[in-house]
Specification:
Helix content: 25-40%
Bound molecules: pyridoxal-5'-phosphate
Largest sheet: 6 strands, mixed
Order of helices and strands: EEHHEHEHHEHEEHEHEHEHHEH
Distance between the termini: 45 Å
């Protein structure tokens, strides 16, 4: 079966005397949390013989991950079993299963809580898939017996396949609009989307991003880890976030995203996009080129974030 989750529309809106274009990857497919369809396109295309033997998909990460939900959809489409390892759930998470976790379990995901050190656990899991592979992580998909491993956040080379298609869509649109220079903004988690987007765009199309997870140094390291050749691939420009912690409610972020939602009449996600928009707007005077904001989807998790806002008394 072939799935072509491509050609998302581009819309625009005005805010504080600027025009913002929005690449609506949130509209690609609700089962894939928007841009995760790009990251997983390689595994979706149904043309790769190497996956014929696979009957089980394995991954690991947070219990509200957008990628986790996209993987549960991928497994369902391919009729694979899906096993997902996550750190031990908090009392609250366990007693109010919502958002991505609820939807993933409904797709048949088998959730396994890891009691021990999760970083060590995931390192060992990864190692068990690459022991016989002298070229290491970057050489090929991690298939062992009937199992396919997709790494945390999907930060691996196969993501380029779908993100390259996204880059070509953006370039074709800009040419049609006669836009010579463009800034594409995307909020980063693993940085995989930003990295492969810049790699597949001409240099006058600059990818700007901010670190939603970890420090700017962490994000830079993520980019360098994805670089297979010692090439001079242009890296995305990081607008520094030194204040907002991942998936944490902040009054000022809520204000920013509410204004953006109202002006655009688009619903953005509440984990990445509030930080993305806030940092972008803080730096807006330094950017003269037209701006295209990449909406990566993820709105299925909004209920969970709203609960966190309420719990903190910020709503
Ligand atoms: C996954 C995701 C991102 C970040 O993608 P990375 O490639 O991990 O940097 C941004 N926004 C949303 C809504 C996402 O789900």
């Amino acid at each position: 079966m072939l799935h072509a989750f491509t050609n998302s529309p581009i819309t625009s809106f005005n805010f504080e005397n600027r025009t913002f274009y929005v690449k609506r990857d949130d509209l690609l497919d609700p089962r894939f949390s928007g841009n995760k369809a790009r990251k997983l396109a390689y595994f979706l295309a149904g043309t790769h013989q190497e996956f014929n033997v696979v009957n089980t998909l394995i991954s690991y990460g947070g219990n509200q991950s957008n990628l986790m939900y996209a993987l549960s959809s991928l497994a369902k489409l391919n009729t694979w079993q899906f096993i997902y390892y996550t750190p031990k759930l908090s009392y609250i998470a366990k007693n109010s299963v919502t958002g991505n976790l609820e939807a993933s379990l409904a797709n048949g995901m088998k959730l396994i809580e890891v009691e021990d050190d999760f970083t060590l656990f995931s390192k060992n899991l990864l190692a068990s898939f690459i022991t016989n592979d002298i070229e290491g992580l970057n050489s090929k998909p991690l298939v062992q017996a009937n199992q396919l491993l997709i790494t945390q956040g999907g930060a691996q080379q196969e993501a380029e396949y779908g993100i390259k298609i996204l880059a070509h869509e953006i370039e074709a649109w800009a040419i049609e609009k006669n836009i010579k220079e463009l800034v594409i903004f995307v909020a980063s988690g693993t940085g995989t989307t930003a990295y492969f987007l810049q790699k597949n765009l001409p240099p006058q199309f600059k990818v700007y991003t901010t670190n939603c997870v970890g420090s700017p140094e962490y994000l830079l390291k993520q980019f360098l880890d994805l670089q297979t050749d010692n090439s001079t691939t242009l890296l995305p420009h990081i607008l520094e976030n030194s204040k907002f912690r991942f998936a944490t409610p902040y009054q000022e972020l809520y204000q920013t995203i509410s204004s953006i939602n109202a002006a655009s009449q688009i619903e953005f996600d509440l984990v990445y996009d509030p930080v993305g928009w806030h940092i972008l707007l803080n730096n807006i005077s330094k950017i003269s080129a037209p701006i295209l904001y990449l909406h990566c989807g993820g709105t299925l998790g909004n209920q969970t974030m709203l609960n966190r806002y309420r719990y903190k008394g910020l709503l």
